[in-house]
Design a protein that fits this description.
Elements lengths: L7 H22 L6 H8 L13 H9 L3 H19 L9 H16 L3 H9 L6 H11 L8 H9 L4 H13 L5 H23 L7 H15 L3
Helix pairs in contact: 1-2, 1-3, 3-6, 4-5, 4-8, 5-9, 5-11, 6-10, 9-10, 10-11
Length: about 230
């Protein structure tokens, strides 16, 4: 006799329970504390059953990290509404691509460097390519966490799910006409790689490294690489 199928509501409830438990473990002891056996013990479930709901523990952790994107996304949406006022000159010219590019990195660094482990998992881990679909499912599982303008916030987050593509989208208007396509792609790759290096230094708690100092280093690199 086969195993009876579970209702969608039961599946959803169990996934929420597992994700919440992973969030608690990360909050208490960090991402490295999340593994199948202690996670299963915390939710009163055989650790093997976790894999009925998630492909592996890395996917559980990624779901558990999504909530840290909320503050960043809300601030990015607010900033995007202010950009025309901040960058419009006395002649009512178009927003400045260079200022938009630097502001984008400044906001992203502010939140990423304050949550380095979570952002590393979100953007540089095994399941990062699936981040868009994971974010969508997360807000199905946790609908109460959506803000009033959730559609705008979700769109903002999806645009950041691949850092290389996101940065290239903002970088091309800044460098168009100054560099060849191949050079722009190289500058983009170097920029994202440097960001990952700074994020990694915070994740391993390098002495003397702070979120503020790393943000300034990143902005300096952006100006240097884009010749701003």
């Amino acid at each position: 006799m086969g195993r009876p199928s579970m209702s969608e509501e039961s599946i959803r409830a169990n996934k929420v329970m597992i994700i919440r438990a992973a969030m608690d473990m990360i909050r208490e002891s960090g991402i490295q504390s999340v593994s199948a056996r202690p996670l299963g013990a915390r939710v009163g479930m055989n650790s093997a059953l976790i894999y009925r709901y998630f492909s592996d523990i890395d996917e559980v952790i990624l779901f558990a990290c999504v909530h840290v994107l909320q503050e960043y996304s809300e601030e990015m949406v607010s900033a995007s509404r202010l950009i025309p006022d901040l960058t419009e000159g006395p002649d009512h010219s178009e927003p400045d691509d260079e200022q938009i590019y630097l502001l984008s990195w400044e906001l992203f660094c502010k939140h990423a460097f304050s949550n380095p482990e979570e952002y590393t998992y979100l953007f540089f881990s095994k399941h990062s390519a699936e981040l868009e679909s994971i974010i969508k499912e997360y807000y199905v599982l946790f609908p109460h966490e959506q803000a009033d303008d959730s559609d705008i916030i979700l769109e903002a987050m999806f645009r950041t799910s691949n850092l290389a593509s996101r940065n290239l989208f903002l970088l091309i208007p800044v460098l168009d006409g100054k560099h060849t396509e191949q050079e722009i792609i190289l500058i983009n790759d170097i920029t994202v790689s440097f960001f990952y290096s700074l994020l990694s230094q915070l994740s391993v708690h390098d002495e003397g490294v702070t979120a503020e100092s790393q943000t300034q280093r990143m902005l300096h690199a952006c100006r240097f690489l884009a010749d701003l």
